[in-house]
Amino acid sequence: xxxxxxxxxxxxxxxxxxxxxxxxxxxxxxxxxxxxxxxxxxxxxxxxxxxxxxxxxxxxxxxxxxxxxxxxxxxxxxxxxxxxxxxxxxxxxxxxxxxxxxxxxxxxxxxxxxxxxxxxxxxxxxxxxxxxxxxxxxxxxxxxxxxxxxxxxxxxxxxxxxxxxxxxxxxxxxxxxxxxxxxxxxxxxxxxxxxxxxxxxxxxxxxxxxxxxxxxxxxxxxxxxxxxxxxxxxxxxxxxxxxxxxxxxxxxxxxxxxxxxxxxxxxxxxxxx
Length: 273
What we know:
Layout: E1 3-7, H1 11-25, E2 28-30, H2 32-42, H3 46-52, H4 59-64, H5 68-82, E3 87-90, E4 104-110, H6 113-124, H7 128-150, E5 162-165, H8 171-182, H9 191-210, E6 218-222, E7 225-229, H10 237-248, E8 256-262, E9 265-270
């Protein structure tokens, strides 16, 4: 069940390529659906989620970590979709959350600046000068967002398995290249790779559940065993322990929770459905 994430500054070509791959393979093709799902599940406005994963953070947001909560919601929704397999996701930021997941093919589609400007002129019906400024601003937003939140550059080829320049090749050729790559043994799903993606999805789900109250909590999981680490004042430990257990109660896939709320004070409690 191949999984593909497609990143590209060209929204139109990114969407067309993703849709054609999905049609050829018989897979689901998703993009904005993730924002809509996260908005409904976590009861936050769609516009705030969209801005959180698109706009670079303001100085206030950097100081208050204002974007992290919304990004956590988006991440949980995306990974819970991807863990089911047979998905083609096209959009921004998705590739950041599946680094080191071996059976996910991470693709970057690039194009010439002039082609991107032409696309913007046609899409928004604006003159060349306006389109050029918008494309430059979009690139700046992407760089600032990735740098501020993840200390990465979305243009870095090391983030991807495949980088394709479509300036001189057709959309169909691009689709052929991606589908051909999916036939390689490395991108075949294995039990180990599937488990790794499920662990990451569970970690993201737990983080999204507690992030509104405990943004600084560190979450990890392995085979249904969840570890949550914090360093609260000693007087607040009992309350925070009760709060956290209430927030994550009912999350599917949790077998056991370990709360490390201070040095050498670990609470272990099995989770029952």
